[in-house]
Amino acid sequence: MRARRDPSDNWSKTPADRPRRRDIAISSGLGVLVLAVLLAAGTIDLAVFVGTSLALASLSLVYYLTALTTIEPEARPVERVTVQPADTAVAELMLERITVPILLIGPGGRIERANPAARAFLGLGGEGGLLSATLRQPRVLEAVSAALRGEKGRAVEYSTLAPIESHVRAFVEPIRLELPGPMPWRAMLVLADDTSSKRAERMRADFLANASHELRTPLASLSGFIETLRGPARDDEEARERFLSIMQVQTERMRRLIDDLLSLSRVEMNEHLPPSGAVDLCELARDVAGALGPVAASRSIGLSLDACEGEAIVHGDRDQLYEVVENLVENALKYSDDGGSVAISVRADLTRDAAEHSDERIAEGSGRLTLSAPPLSSEARYGVLRVRDCGQGIDRRYLPRLSERFFRVGGQKSSPTSGTGLGLAIVKHIVARHRGGFTVESAPGEGSVFSIFFPAVRKSATDGNEPVQRGATVS
Which residue has the higher pLDDT, 307 or 117? Predict the structure, then answer.
C-alpha cells in the first residue's frame, strides 16, 4: 500500500535541549542575585562575592555540557497513514486469496476481520463475534490481550485432540491504527498448521517401533530356514522345497505388513485434512462385491449386496473408501465359516442416530460400540454401508480394542496366514479423516455387523463443482 504523510504533521523546530538551557540560566541568575543582595547588606565582602560567582558560573557550564551529552533525541511523532481506494482493493484481494488463516482482533477481543482461510479453519459463521467463543486457548487469548495493550507480539503453540488431533502455531502482533477513541491498538493473529510435520515425526518413530516388533518373528524364521538349507538340509530336496515354500509365505507376510504400515502412515499424515471429492457408496459396494466374489465362491460363502435405489453420494476419497469397504468385507469372509454368508447393505440420507444403529439387533444382549463418531450436527445426513457376517462373533470385552494396532481378538497369535492386525486401525483413521462414523455390533456365536457412515453430499453440490469419483466396475 502507498502510505502518505499528512502535510499538517510538522516536526517541532524547537531544539530538544532548550528547556534545559532555560533552567540553567534561571538557576545561575538567581544565584548571582542572592550574592549581590548579601554583598549590599554587608554580609559578605567583594572578594567572596567574586569567587562565589565564578564558582557558580563554572558549575553551570559543567551542568550544561553534561546535559548536551546525555540529551535524548526528540521522538518522531507517529505519521497518519492514509490508504488510497486502489490500495484498499488490492489489500482486500490479497487477504481473500491468502491460504494462511489471518484475523484482525479489535477491542474486547472481537473479530473485526477474518479471511476465508481463517473462517474455514476455525469454523466461523461470520465476523464480529468474540475470539474466545471460537478459539478456547488461554495462552493465545493472553497473547492477543497483551497485543491489544500495545505490548510486544509473540508466538504460541497449542494442540487439540477433538474432534481431530491438530497442532497449531499462532503468531500475534500488535498493530496501531490512527483512529479516534482511546483504543487505537489491534491484534493481528496468524495461524500456521504444524499438524503434518508433528505427525511425520511421530509416524517415523511409530513405524520403526512397530516394524521392528512385527518383523522380528518372520525374519527369525527366514534366518533359521536359510541356516538349515545351507547345513543339514543342503542335499535334501524334499526338505528344501518345503522350507522354500514356508519362506515364501513368511516373505509375503512381511510384504503385507510393510504395505499396511505404509498405508496407515499415509492415512494418519492427512487425517486432519478432510477430502473434497464425492463418492457413490452404492457403486463402491458393487465394485468390492465383484472383486471379492471369487474369494467367497471358493469357500462356498454367499456374498449378497442390498444397495439402495438410486445413489448414495457422500464426501470422500474413492481410493480410501474402497480400501475401507474392502477391509471390512475381507475380514467378514476371513472369519466366516465355509458355507456361511456375508451381507453388504447401503442406505442413503439417514440421520446420525439411524446411521449409528442398525435396523435390528443381531441377537438379544449383543454388544454395540461406536469406535469413531462424526462431529455433532442436527442437520447432517449420512450415507451408510453395513457388512454383516455369520461367523464366530466377538466377545463384548474385546470391542473397545478392535481398532488398536496389531490387536487380534482373543489374544490370537500371529501366524503366516493371519492378518497383520492393522486393517481396522486403517479403517478407523480413514473414517475419522472423512468426518464419518464407525460402529460395531457383535455377539459370540451370532456374527458381527460393522457399519461405516459418511456425510452425504447435497444434490446441488453434485451438480456443481464436486464431480462424483467413479471407478471401473469389477465383474
Answer: 117
